[in-house]
Specification:
This protein has 357 residues and is of the alpha/beta class. Helix content is 45%, strand content 20%. It folds into two domains: 209 residues, Rossmann fold (3-Layer(aba) Sandwich), CATH 3.40.50.2300; 128 residues, Response regulator (Rossmann fold, 3-Layer(aba) Sandwich), CATH 3.40.50. It starts with a helix and ends with a strand.
Length: 357
């Protein structure tokens, strides 16, 4: 008799616990650069996420809570923000941006079994992990598109200037692999992020003959300064690069050095999403990666409609198939990434134009 009473009490307690969990919102901690050099990238992501959240029904909004933290794109700040989100807010999932900060946090999220979605280039962020995914066009895809465009422009010899950072190095190394036996990298310089004076490198560049272009795999804050410095000291070679060319503030700060230069980034968001974004934030608002943020929130919402648990949300991301989102149609891959397409784009004095995928 006592045994039956004990079991009944356990069942009641368990039912009460389940009801409490269902009543509690699923908390998503979002750690972005909302200040510092990467703030325009971070604000664009935040805008996309808020646009997604605002599009949800009242019921769905009540089932999810977004909690934003600023790390200024500094890894130690990312860890501090995550510890606060875990201990104070008791988050159920975490979103990060950039390879350096994501690489710093990934082992901790994995150990604590917190589903983590990174927006980063470096594949090591999510390699061989069970709780970490990377929602960005892979550096391998970006590099292949970049090499194809470079060949189309008849580049034979190039110079590569890269920020000494996980993301930039991942893109450059992928480019080297894709360019093997096709394009020669005659100079490779990996530059510390706080280095804003490359006159010694420029002197070396000027000694090279028959170079066709310079590849800039640089982070915000450094990209504009170094592109401008190349022009100031007489280097007129074509420039090309990757996603950070799509930062309006970098283009403005470059004083024209990035205008009419091409780059590779994730393909443009769908027309429907772009209209929504412009309607909400205006035509001048930076949109880089905002569609990634939008999709991440919408995917979490889709998962929560089926089951409100960390384990299920994690599994849902890992098994995503033919998802139709703001970033197009894509699926999860078996290496914890997504099959997001990349495209060749052009910087103009007014906008960014997609030339081809």
């Amino acid at each position: 008799m006592f045994r039956l009473i004990y079991i009944a009490i356990l069942l009641l307690c368990n039912a009460a616990f389940v009801r409490a969990q269902e009543a509690r919102p699923f908390k998503v901690g979002i750690i972005l650069a909302l200040s510092g050099e990467g703030m325009f990238f971070g604000q664009s992501l935040k805008n996309g996420m808020l646009l997604a959240y605002e599009s949800l029904s009242k019921e769905d909004q009540q089932a999810m809570q977004l909690i934003f933290e600023d790390d200024s794109m500094v890894s130690r700040n990312t860890i501090t923000a995550f510890n606060k989100l875990r201990s104070v807010d008791d988050i159920d999932a975490v979103v990060t941006m950039t390879s350096g900060t994501s690489n710093a946090l990934a082992p901790l999220a994995e150990r604590q079994k917190i589903p983590m979605i990174a927006i980063a280039s470096d594949k090591t962020v999510c390699a061989n992990r069970n709780y970490v995914m990377n929602h960005w066009a892979t550096p391998e895809v970006e590099a292949e598109v970049a090499v194809q465009e470079a060949e189309r422009r008849n580049y034979k010899k190039i110079i590569a200037l890269t920020t000494l950072h996980d993301g930039g190095l991942a893109v450059k190394n992928s480019f080297k692999i894709a360019a093997k036996n096709k394009i020669e990298l005659v100079i490779e310089e990996d530059i510390a992020y706080d280095n804003r004076d490359i006159r010694s490198i420029i002197a070396k560049i000027k000694t090279k003959k028959d170079v066709d272009a310079i590849m800039l795999a640089l982070l915000p804050g450094q990209l504009a300064v170094l592109a401008k410095q190349l022009r100031q000291y007489g280097v007129s070679l074509p420039l090309f690069g990757f996603e950070m060319f799509e930062d309006k503030e970098e283009v403005k700060a470059s004083d024209g050095a990035l205008i009419n230069q091409w780059y590779v980034n994730a393909s443009d968001a769908t027309g429907e999403y772009t209209k929504k974004y412009i309607s909400r934030y205006g035509d001048n608002a930076t949109r880089i990666a905002s569609n990634n943020g939008f999709d991440i929130i919408m995917i979490i919402n889709d998962a929560l409609k089926k089951e409100r648990s960390r384990q299920f949300v994690n599994r849902y991301f890992h098994t995503l198939k033919d998802y139709r989102g703001a970033s197009g149609v894509y699926s999860a891959t078996d290496d914890n990434r997504f099959s997001l397409p990349a495209a060749v784009k052009l910087v103009t004095d007014k906008e960014f134009i997609q030339l081809r995928q």
